[in-house]
């Protein structure tokens, strides 16, 4: 199994190379050179133990270059972050509607599954080469917390996390900034998530940093991160007992939704994919109106989805265009230069065959939190509410599984505003209060970001 880039890089690269690179040399994102055909019964594996399913999928996508022991360790860590009382955490809310709870890991967010996996695989890859690695990542809240928890204390990895100052929830911030580890640097940027993401992508291509050693990212631009999210689509589908259930994915950077696409691509029992976004709806506008426009992100209740330039949209464009590297490169170079680009009618139609999208307002988010409590006795977070709201609008179009991406206690103010009471607080969150925080604040400036990372890696 080899990997290529969305903008023309043909490599080849093994999984280990793609994992440690993060971005492809062409400036695009890594994807499999060819999507593999399972040499095992995929549906039977999806119904079996989650760690076994994950192990089979990792081997299918070429992770076995890191050795059988590394694959099994990664699979078991992912399983530990996923299951609820040893079972797939799927709850049926009503006829043809399920909720997949993806927040049973150490930081109570769906990012834990993939991050726990990628940490184990990264350590294995570096042990093979004897090298050290600097990881830089942008976060709208949950990715950073999950990365800090997964990589803190690593002897081969230095982790730099950029988050938008004042634009993550207090709990998300504390989960990042209270972890004491010499190999972790938390940087708050005076900007939004898209600003942080642009900083990271520029740092990944900076020659002065490359000269100091390996540098990569654990955002969902990294194929390894995305791969860790494929198994739960298959497991949830099997647990539902439905034939080709549709999935509704609350999304910001579009990585989670594309993981579902990859699961369907290899033959998984996955129906239609629908991306639900908040008022930062560049993705929805691109798919529905054919205009991809970069706007300043505005703060919403579902802060982890406050993204106006979702990186993984590039993977969708690449696949929907018939894997046209030239077309993908031109599309995103135009977007980078002008801040907007039009999808041709043909490309827009091709994208919509793969995934649809809708925008959920703040009022709808609050109303859905209320509906979930009154109707199902479930307290859900605002991100989950965005997905459930979109799923309810699709009633009558077959079975749907909505993804619950975070514990409601991570966003207590909005949830309490909707329900009139505070969500129960798990011990993992309660013990953060009063802990010492360590954070470096910088302006939204590429030179300042480079200076901070250079000093940290000296």
From TrEMBL:
Q: Give UniProt keywords alphabetically.
A: Amino-acid biosynthesis, Lyase, Pyridoxal phosphate, Threonine biosynthesis
* Similarity-based family: Belongs to the threonine synthase family.
Pathway this chain belongs to? Amino-acid biosynthesis; L-threonine biosynthesis; L-threonine from L-aspartate: step 5/5
Annotated Tryptophan synthase beta chain-like PALP domain residues: 85-319
Cofactor(s) required, per the database record: pyridoxal 5'-phosphate
For this protein, the record's NCBIfam families field holds: thrC
Residues with N6-(pyridoxal phosphate)lysine modification:
111
Domain (Threonine synthase N-terminal): residue spans on this chain: 2-73
Q: Which GO terms describe its molecular function?
A: pyridoxal phosphate binding; threonine synthase activity
What reaction gets catalysed by this protein? O-phospho-L-homoserine + H2O = L-threonine + phosphate
Coiled coil, from the record: none
Organism, by scientific name, is: Asticcacaulis biprosthecium C19
> What is the name listed in the Swiss-Prot or TrEMBL entry for this protein?
Threonine synthase
Give the UniProt record's GO annotations in the biological process aspect.
threonine biosynthetic process
- EC number(s): the record gives 4.2.3.1
SUPFAM superfamilies per UniProt: Tryptophan synthase beta subunit-like PLP-dependent enzymes
UniProt signal peptide:
none
- Top-level taxon in the UniProt lineage: Bacteria
């Amino acid at each position: 199994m080899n990997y290529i880039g969305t903008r023309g890089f043909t490599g080849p690269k093994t999984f280990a190379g793609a994992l440690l690179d993060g971005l492809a040399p062409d400036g695009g994102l890594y994807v499999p050179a060819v999507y593999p055909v399972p040499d095992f019964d995929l549906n039977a594996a999806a119904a079996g133990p989650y760690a076994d399913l994950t192990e089979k999928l990792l081997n299918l996508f070429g992770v076995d270059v890191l050795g059988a022991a590394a694959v099994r360790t990664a699979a078991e860590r992912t399983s530990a972050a996923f299951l609820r009382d040893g079972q797939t955490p799927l709850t049926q809310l009503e006829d043809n509607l399920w909720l997949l709870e993806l927040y049973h890991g150490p930081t109570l967010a769906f990012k834990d599954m993939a991050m726990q996996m990628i940490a184990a695989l990264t350590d294995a890859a570096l042990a093979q080469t004897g090298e050290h690695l600097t990881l830089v990542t942008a976060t709208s809240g949950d990715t950073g917390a999950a990365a800090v928890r997964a990589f803190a204390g690593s002897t081969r990895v230095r982790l730099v996390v950029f988050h938008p100052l004042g634009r993550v929830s207090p709990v998300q911030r504390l989960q990042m900034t209270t972890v004491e580890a010499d190999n972790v640097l938390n940087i708050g940027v005076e900007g939004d998530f898209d600003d942080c993401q642009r900083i990271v992508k520029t740092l990944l291509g900076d020659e002065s940093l490359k000269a100091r050693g390996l540098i990569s990212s654990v955002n969902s631009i990294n194929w390894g991160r995305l791969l860790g999210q494929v198994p739960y689509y298959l497991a949830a589908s099997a647990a539902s007992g439905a034939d080709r259930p549709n999935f509704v994915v609350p999304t910001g950077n579009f990585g989670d939704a594309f993981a579902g696409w990859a699961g369907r691509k290899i033959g998984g029992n996955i129906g239609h994919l629908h991306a639900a976004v908040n008022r930062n709806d560049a993705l929805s506008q691109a798919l529905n109106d054919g205009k991809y426009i970069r706007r300043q992100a505005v703060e919403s209740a579902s802060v982890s989805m406050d993204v106006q330039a979702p990186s993984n949209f590039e993977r969708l464009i690449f696949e929907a265009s018939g894997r046209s590297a030239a077309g993908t490169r031109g599309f995103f170079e135009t977007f980078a230069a002008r801040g907007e680009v039009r999808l041709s009618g043909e490309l827009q139609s091709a994208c919509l065959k793969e995934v649809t999208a809708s925008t959920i307002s703040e009022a709808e988010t609050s109303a859905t939190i209320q509906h979930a409590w009154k109707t199902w006795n479930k307290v859900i977070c605002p991100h989950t509410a965005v997905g459930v709201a979109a799923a309810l609008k699709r009633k009558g179009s077959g079975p749907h599984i909505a993804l619950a991406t975070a514990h409601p206690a991570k966003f207590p103010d909005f949830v309490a505003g909707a329900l009139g009471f505070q969500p129960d607080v798990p011990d993992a969150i309660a013990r953060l209060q009063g802990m010492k925080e360590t954070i470096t604040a910088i302006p939204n400036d590429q030179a300042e970001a480079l200076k901070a990372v250079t000093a940290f890696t000296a």
